[in-house]
Write a structure and sequence with these properties.
266 residues; Rossmann fold; alpha/beta; seven-stranded mixed β-sheet; single chain
Length: 266
């Protein structure tokens, strides 16, 4: 299926509803497992090569780069809630066949025409309202469009949360670690069919010398937002010191579904 050319005059949309930004350069330097996981999720999509695909939570564009290889005659919408992540992705990918969007997945999405597929890795747990998330994704997907996603699920990073509790801290910030059954129900209510969800553990060792940077940038990024450098350093060191080992005990929620059509799936 071919698509009409997209107006490239304005590729970057910014929305005030987006709250947290990221240190994209620090993120790109870290030994993150999300790239490996993202490549596996990308493989779930059945693509001919000419589709229009939304990467919902593109980050710095590592997986988006692989996605572009899968659609050599198609186009990609690279969306993220962080302007710095989008800027980094743009440096990596350029503008050819990519439309860049900074937007909140809890709000209506400025995407038109509709997409043939949605890819998302390590993003949905940063969205608090999953009912709104799936409703807004469904609104920009054509009938029969595929959804392939993975995010943090119920029980994710429990050792980090336990360390915070031991310090008298709550696990603050924009995080929602959902389970497979509630996610399936939300997807079906939002207009999806052929829904498959599951949880699995992905314990990830982090080199001891990089653990504090990893925690500050990824696991605790929104928790330490606004701290000065000294306070942040002490806080993250205390969290790392209370963890039993330099391992992030990730739990991932796999999501696969299709957008339901007027009379069911295509």
């Amino acid at each position: 299926m071919s698509h009409p050319p997209v107006d490239r005059a304005e590729r970057l949309y910014a929305y005030e509803t987006v709250s947290r930004d990221w240190d994209a350069a620090a993120y790109d330097r870290l030994p993150i497992p999300m790239t490996r996981w993202g490549e596996a999720v990308l493989a779930w999509l059945d693509l001919r090569g000419d589709e229009r695909v939304l990467d919902a939570g593109c980050g710095t564009g590592r997986i988006t780069e692989r996605l572009l290889e899968r659609v050599p005659h198609g186009e990609v919408v690279a969306l993220d809630g962080s302007a710095s992540m989008i800027a980094r992705a743009r440096e990596r990918l350029g503008d050819d066949r990519v439309t860049y969007v900074v937007a909140d997945l809890q709000a209506p999405l400025p995407i038109d025409p509709p997409v043939d597929a949605v890819l998302s890795t390590a993003t949905f747990h940063w969205v608090l309202d999953h009912d709104a998330l799936f409703r807004h994704l469904a609104a920009v997907m054509r009938p029969g469009a595929q959804l392939a996603a993975q995010c943090g699920g119920d029980g994710n990073v429990a050792s980090v949360e336990a360390a915070l509790r031991a310090m008298g801290e709550g696990f603050a910030g924009r995080k929602h670690y959902a389970g497979p059954d509630e996610t399936r129900a939300r997807l079906e209510a939002a207009g999806f069919t052929d829904v498959r969800t599951r949880l699995h553990e992905e314990p990830t060792p982090v080199p001891a010398q990089e653990l504090e940077s990893y925690l500050a940038t990824i696991c605790l990024g929104d928790h330490v937002e606004g701290m000065d450098d000294d306070e942040l350093g002490r806080f993250v060191h205390d969290v790392a010191d209370r963890m039993p080992q330099p391992v992030i005990d990730y739990v991932r929620l796999d999501i696969r579904a299709r957008r339901r059509g007027p009379s069911g799936p295509e």
